[in-house]
């Protein structure tokens, strides 16, 4: 957001918050990312999808500075992860697919620890964490050890931890994993509200009907390349398929689900 001095109006600065140019990354001898070009603007909810092993997590981890040794250009708020600076990371929130949570801590201890890492004072982090836990129906377990939490409760703590510092970009990897239907509705609304305020959401998931509904831009990665990029309506227009699941099948050249299932079950029955 920038201040327009003369008129006194707030306007959204629409320059890209994420820029990738010819991004390539190889593990051992094979390229996992084969030249990714991308501009992401404030306020977009990007559905980042692709088959298992397509390179989605690798892209996100490069942007977070967690994976090095890539070629090409990566700019997050104009900064490059390879420069080693951490300032840009304060403006990022991340919900990983598999989280290393400190199970021995209580939710209160964990969230105040994460909040302080992001530069909040203990009091700010504690007050905010407590109220956000209440919003998710977790008031009674604020002082309980995370090790005793159900999968969905842990996921809610992770979502809160990614948002405590009010980030401008949110990277989410299967964020709804384990959440009940009511909580899913709440989180979908939260994402829409954040995007409406100019926050950018980079949403990676295999749940196609959710991606279809919440994303205003869908990026399909296959074999380390972007094979589709547009709104759901645009993708539908290009592929003449109905649902995002069908578009996904078509664009990744997959139509063997029945045969694979039959062969799988035949092997299971070999006794
Ligand atoms: N640290 C690593 N060392 C070696 N290979 C890796 C490493 N990390 C990822 N890979 C490989 O890179 C490829 C892409 O992995 P990545 O996790 O980015 O895929 P993904 O699209 O997120 O998949 P999924 O949908 O299954 O989560 C895979 O073949 C994986 O084995």
TrEMBL record:
SMART domains hit by this protein: AAA
Residues in ABC transporter domain copies: 18-248
The protein, known as: ABC-2 type transport system ATP-binding protein
Entry keyword Metal-binding: no
Molecular function GO labels: ATP binding; ATP hydrolysis activity
TM region(s), chain numbering: none
PANTHER family referenced in this protein's UniProt entry, alphabetically: ABC TRANSPORTER, ATP-BINDING PROTEIN
Naturally occurring in which organism (per UniProt): Fontibacillus phaseoli
Keyword tRNA-binding on entry: no
Alphabetic keyword roster: ATP-binding, Nucleotide-binding
InterPro entries recorded: AAA+_ATPase, ABC_transporter-like_ATP-bd, ABC_transporter-like_CS, P-loop_NTPase
């Amino acid at each position: 957001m920038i201040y327009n001095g003369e008129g006194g109006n707030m306007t959204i600065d629409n320059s890209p918050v994420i820029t990738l140019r010819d991004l390539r990354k190889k593990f051992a001898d094979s390229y996992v990312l084969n030249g990714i070009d991308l501009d992401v603007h404030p306020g977009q909810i990007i559905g980042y999808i692709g088959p298992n092993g397509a390179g989605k997590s690798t892209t996100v981890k490069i942007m977070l500075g967690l994976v090095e040794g890539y070629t090409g250009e990566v700019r997050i708020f104009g900064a490059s992860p390879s420069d080693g600076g951490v300032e840009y990371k304060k403006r990022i929130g991340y919900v990983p697919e598999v989280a290393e949570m400190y199970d021995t801590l209580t939710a209160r201890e964990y969230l105040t620890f994460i909040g302080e890492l992001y530069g909040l004072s203990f009091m700010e982090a504690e007050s905010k964490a407590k109220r956000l836990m209440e919003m998710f129906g977790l008031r009674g377990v604020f002082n309980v050890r995370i090790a005793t939490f159900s999968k969905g409760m842990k996921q809610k703590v992770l979502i809160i931890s990614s948002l405590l510092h009010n980030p401008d970009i949110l990277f989410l990897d299967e964020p709804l994993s384990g959440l009940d239907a009511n909580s899913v509705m709440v989180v979908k609304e939260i994402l829409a509200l954040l995007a409406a305020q100019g926050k950018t959401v980079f949403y990676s998931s295999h749940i196609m009907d959710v991606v279809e509904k919440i994303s205003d831009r869908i990026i399909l990665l296959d074999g380390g390349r972007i094979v589709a990029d547009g709104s759901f309506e645009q993708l539908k227009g290009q592929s003449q398929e109905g649902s995002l699941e069908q578009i996904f099948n078509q664009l990744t050249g997959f139509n063997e689900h029945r045969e694979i299932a039959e062969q799988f079950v035949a092997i299971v029955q070999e006794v």
